[in-house]
């Protein structure tokens, strides 16, 4: 039992040492999100900072007026349809 306790203590010591020494000293960037296995416990504040940054960008980039945007898209779709019909008609006149 004491042997197990000693082995566990050694494992925990190595784990903590690795997480305090193997971090990326230049800081983390968004591209590092995909490399989750490389993150260390000491970098948790960095994760929180990046998460806040991404969240803010998503919030700023979202559509503010959904109904107005849908109406605009619908109008543009109708305009594209009209232009297609006009193009077909003009092509038929040119071939005649």
Radius of gyration from the alpha-carbon trace, in angstroms: 29 Å
Task: Tell me, briefly, the overall form.
Answer: rod-shaped
Query: What is the makeup of the main sheet?
Result: none
> What is the H/E string?
HHH
Low-confidence stretches: none
Ends apart, CA distance between termini: 98 Å
Structural class: mainly alpha
Query: Helix count?
Result: 3
Question: What is the percent of helical residues?
Answer: over 70%
* Share in β-strands: under 5%
How many β-strand stretches? 0
**In the residues, how many domains can be counted?**
2
Rounded mean pLDDT is 83
Structural overview:
It contains 3 helices and no strands. With 96 residues, it is mainly alpha-helical. It is 71% helix and 0% strand. The radius of gyration is 29 Å and the shape is rod-shaped. It folds into 2 domains: 1-62, no CATH class; 64-96. The model has no long low-confidence stretch (mean pLDDT 83).
Summarize it:
This protein has helices spanning 2-21, 44-61, 66-95.
Jot down its keywords:
71% helix, 2 domains, 96 residues, mainly alpha
Q: What topology does this entry show?
A:
Elements lengths: L1 H20 L22 H18 L4 H30 L1
